[in-house]
Amino acid sequence: MSSHQSLLSDRWARFLYRCSLFLLIFFTCGFVIVTPADMISQALRNGQRYNIIIIAAIYFAVGVATLILYLNRLYNVRVALSDIPKRYVPGEHDFPKRCANTIEAELIRCRMIQESLQPSDNVSHPGLPPPHSEFDFPQVPYLEVLIESAKLLEIKASSLQPVLRRKSCMSLKEYALYLRRYVNFDEGLGDRFVDSYEEARYSGRPITEEKFKDMMRMFTLLLRSIELPDKVSEPSLEFVDTARGWEV
């Protein structure tokens, strides 16, 4: 169905709805008015004016009660709509007890379905942590974590000397060679980590879980070993002059 046909169908449905609503209101008012009109007509013919007063008072009271109920419903609907979205998380006491029990039962059922769909074994695929991983970043590719770890090395070095930032054209190996001139760290550990990093990033082969754990251990030890030497040498003028264009 085209959008034009859908628009016509919607307009036709709204027209039928309005017509049926108008006819329903018209016939309802007609049936409601017939009875009191007949009673008032009989009271006038019989000279019973007190009956007219009673009938008018009763229908007036019914009209007032109807108006109050309608305005109350209209107010409640507007308040409920204005409270969407709620400013707090609804709790158990915000629902009827039966509704709260139903919600709790459905949550338990969904949790059981989710647990039943989990792998029976802790399967580990290269490149991704297993479903029940010991790491704090489930379902995050190992390679993304390693790329962020290289940025952490730069942050640690620049915290010691603000100008020791990595130039955008520098590889991690070039950056590590440059840092040797101004900070102390375990160079053997740094070489092993850089070689493993470049192999993991550029070889095109996904990283295994064992390899990733080993690299994270090396990274943690390397990060802890970075410190300023006793005699701090200033970075070269060329490094300082171009530092403004280097990325963090």
What does this protein look like?
This protein has helices spanning about 5-45, 50-80, 95-115, 140-160, 170-180, 185-200, 210-225, 235-240. The protein is mainly α and about 250 residues long. The protein is built from 8 helices and no strands. The longest helix has about 45 residues, at about 5-45. Helix 1 (about 5-45) runs antiparallel to helix 2, helix 4 packs parallel to helix 7 (about 210-225) and helix 6 (about 185-200) runs antiparallel to helix 7 (about 210-225).
Note the total helix count: 8
Rounded Rg: 39 Å
Largest sheet: none
Structural class comes to mainly alpha
Number of extended strands: 0
> How much helix is in the residues?
55-70%
Strand portion? under 5%
Measured between the Cα atoms of the first and last residue, the distance is: 54 Å
Give the SSE layout.
Elements: H1 3-46, H2 49-82, H3 97-117, H4 142-160, H5 172-179, H6 187-202, H7 209-225, H8 237-242
Helix pairs in contact: 1-2, 4-7, 6-7
Characteristic terms for this protein:
rod-shaped; mainly alpha; disordered C terminus
Summarize the structure.
By secondary structure, the protein is mainly alpha-helical.
